[in-house]
Amino acid sequence: MKKFLMTCLMILIACGFVYAQDTQEVQSATDTQGYSQQFEGFNLQGYTDDGKKAWDVKGDTADVLNSSIKLHNVDANSYGEQKMNVKAKTGIVDKASGDMHLEKDVVITTERGTQLTTDALDWQRNKDLVTTDDKVVITDESMIATGTGATAHPNLKQAQLNEDVTVKMKTEPKKSDGRIVTITSDGPMVIDQIKQSAVFHDNVVAVQENRILQADQMEVFFDKLTNKITKIICTGNVVITQGENKSYSKMAIYDANTQMLTLSGQPKLILITQGENPLAALGGEPK
């Protein structure tokens, strides 16, 4: 969640600029000869103004066609604040627009170990848009997220999983025995890197042990350094279930630092107790 999707997808931007810069030369070669060419050991590299390596793109072979370049066994790297790598069986680059399509066993890996896998990805350079309609799996040390379809606007540092979202995350990422929270939603689930948040939409259900939280929308905030959950805000038809006890409200706010849960908007609590002391569940005594 956190930085995972946005940092993974930034490599695609680098790849797009690689080909955008090199397409004019390749275009003239193919147009003049009137047929496609195949190159073995295709390799392109880019450098910053001060001479540092910025990116590289490799392919076992490259088929240079009239309007596109088809790469086989794509292996690309971006060398910035954090090194990122992308691999795919094939990649097709549109020479006119610089748009890129990656296909078959697409795997994007960041230096910190976050990994995104899918069957195919498209990047539209002019629209600053990365998309896929296929199933997406994102993993890092603290969570696993799956969904169908994804979109991202890298310059805005925003991304989303479109449908059928499931996220399993540790409440204490650094602990091997940390509790697991599972959040599902119909989608979308929107990630905002600047706010360090993830927002789940439509039929949201969070489950931890014997506690279940349901809402129309759930916004989860994370600590930038530790990746721990700091706050959860639920809105719309909020239902919290623990055993046979339930609470209802229009909004619920959980503060992880104080471990306080605040219900607002016509809150209602239903307790199912045993014996003759209905206040026992609240820690009270009968009069």
Secondary-structure blueprint:
Elements lengths: L3 H30 L3 E11 L5 E12 L3 E11 L5 E11 L5 E11 L4 E10 L4 E12 L2 E11 L4 E13 L9 E6 L3 E4 L4 E12 L2 E12 L6 E14 L2 E11 L4 E5 L3 E3 L17
Antiparallel strand pairs: 1-2, 2-3, 3-4, 4-5, 5-6, 6-7, 7-8, 8-9, 9-10, 9-11, 10-12, 11-12, 12-13, 13-14, 14-15, 15-16, 15-17
- CATH class categorisation of the largest domain: Mainly Beta
Secondary-structure element string: HEEEEEEEEEEEEEEEEE
What's the domain count?
2
CATH superfamily of the largest domain: Lipopolysaccharide (LPS) transport protein A like domain
CA gyration radius, whole angstroms: 24 Å
Shape: elongated
The major beta sheet can be summarized as: 17 strands, antiparallel
CATH fold annotation of the largest domain: lipopolysaccharide transport protein A fold
Number of helices: 1
Number of strands: 17
> Could you say which structural class the secondary elements and strand pairing correspond to?
mainly beta
Q: Indicate the low-confidence ranges by residue numbers.
A: 1-35, 278-287
CA-to-CA gap between the ends?
A: 49 Å
Strand content: over 45%
CATH architecture of the largest domain: Sandwich
Helix content: 10-25%
- pLDDT averaged over residues: 77
Give keywords:
2 domains; lipopolysaccharide transport protein A fold; 1 helix; 17 strands; 287 residues; disordered C terminus; mainly beta
Verbal overview:
- By secondary structure, the chain is mostly beta strands.
- It has two domains: 1-128, Lipopolysaccharide (LPS) transport protein A like domain (lipopolysaccharide transport protein A fold), CATH 2.60.450.10; 157-282, Lipopolysaccharide (LPS) transport protein A like domain (lipopolysaccharide transport protein A fold, Sandwich).
- It is 10% helix and 59% strand.
- The protein is built from one helix and 17 strands.
- The chain has one helix spanning 4-33; strands at residues 37-47, 53-64, 68-78, 84-94, 100-110, 115-124, 129-140, 143-153, 158-170, 180-185, 189-192, 197-208, 211-222, 229-242, 245-255, 260-264, 268-270.
- The chain is elongated, with a radius of gyration of 24 Å.
- Residues 1-35 and 278-287 have low confidence and may be disordered.
